[in-house]
Amino acid sequence: xxxxxxxxxxxxxxxxxxxxxxxxxxxxxxxxxxxxxxxxxxxxxxxxxxxxxxxxxxxxxxxxxxxxxxxxxxxxxxxxxxxxxxxxxxxxxxxxxxxxxxxxxxxxxxxxxxxxxxxxxxxxxxxxxxxxxxxxxxxxxxxxxxxxxxxxxxxxxxxxxxxxxxxxxxxxxxxxxxxxxxxxxxxxxxxxxxxxxxxxxxxxxxxxxxxxxxxxxxxxxxxxxxxxxxxxxxxxxxxxxxxxxxxxxxxxxxxxxxxxxxxxxxxxxxxxxxxxxxxxxxxxxxxxxxxxxxxxxxxxxxxxxxxxxxxxxxxxxxxxxxxxxxxxxxxxxxxxxxxxxxxxxxxxxxxxxxxxxxxxxxxxxxxxxxxxxxxxxxxxxxxxxxxxxxxxxxxxxxxxxxxxxxxxxxxxxxxxxxxxxxxxxxxxxxxxxxxxxxxxxxxxxxxxxxxxxxxxxxxxxxxxxxxxxxxxxxxxxxxxxxxxxxxxxxxxxxxxxxxxxxxxxxxxxxxxxxxxx
Length: 517
Ligand code: GLN
Description:
Largest sheet: 11 strands, mixed
CATH topology of one domain: Amidase signature (AS) enzymes
Number of helices: 18
Number of strands: 13
Low-confidence stretches: none
CATH architecture of one domain: Alpha-Beta Complex
Bound molecules: glutamine
Oligomer: single chain
Distance between the termini: 7 Å
Helix content: 25-40%
Mean pLDDT: 96
Strand content: 5-15%
CATH class of one domain: Alpha Beta
Radius of gyration: 22 Å
Structural class: alpha/beta
CATH superfamily of one domain: Amidase signature (AS) domain
């Protein structure tokens, strides 16, 4: 069973179809594993009861020979900013700590339609505002890599022996804001998880946790039931251990949704990756603006090495420029705060969410409820957003940022029109920092650094993917990002798979001594 937890979805599904293993056995093992890795704090809620019921339904389908496809009986996790009916959906905020939605997010419905089993809801920065999963009501999520949990329970093949400098208090952040989803997948408690990605929240934790992290084209996947951060940039993201697993999940959740008018109207054509991949006809741009100060020597070396691999396989590597890149994150900060001010105005203590105990006027009710319910990061963003949206400031900030957004998108268009097929960049500038290093800077400053390479794709609505490349000298994941023109997921995932096969990032396995049966 231990081996099965680190297998691909396809392999596990084959065993389920063969009758070699029951979905409920897999589910039970995954739930047990969540207890073992609890110190990492990946989950806000482990939905063991729901998972048990869903898995025994899958058992019944297995007995009747009526399984629903490759996701039937496969454990998954979902970031706790997606509505799942009947249980808590907290956004890791006191404001929603006791909120239980009356409907399901479309992405969850679609996974359930294919028989996937919900293991739990995962930790995040409050309302997905952050890049470290350190600003959660439930405490920070810790990275598996560089942790005691890794050395205790997992093994992996590696070329060099990592500098083992594990120290109790020097644990690494998981990245964010979907850090809980990343750690849930990295530890093997589930095969894939949904994150959300507004500025990098799926790709950033994927980079630090050694996973595939896909941000699909804006509008390809429904946002219905995803509690919004910045409506015109939010997309559901996928975290998985392999590109093939990512494709299975994407094919299950993508496509038009009448409940989300911003989803694309044309029918979704499932991605089907070729058996043998030829990259020789690809023109891959290397944007110079992504080679910023602060990029670590090791990330730079990965970037050079993968470019070389691609070139050796016949691809053209083309130095390119995206001149407005540096403005992206600044404009994002403005737009983000404006949307936050507006989206979070509904939490007033009246309809749902936290309500302050004592108050003597409606004004006092709002004031107390909101100051008790939100953390300082959220409150700061609401205040700044309302300032940007004042009648006298609106043009100066919001309108200007929107104009710049157009220029950033046009930078990308110019490259695609100039026959560039894909862009290759770092995802994060370094390996995962320690908690102490990370929290020396505030949430806003960290976002400026962490989202530098990831945020422009959200500005332009492009699909982008994190691919883990190798382990650093300290034994931590180093990753790169690929970006493609809108709706070119097929090309993006194909190239990502080629890189995956070429670099062979180490696969984690549970040690035999850690028996979960
Ligand atoms: N780090 C960015 C922010 O805090 C992006 C977060 C996200 O993608 N959800 O806003």
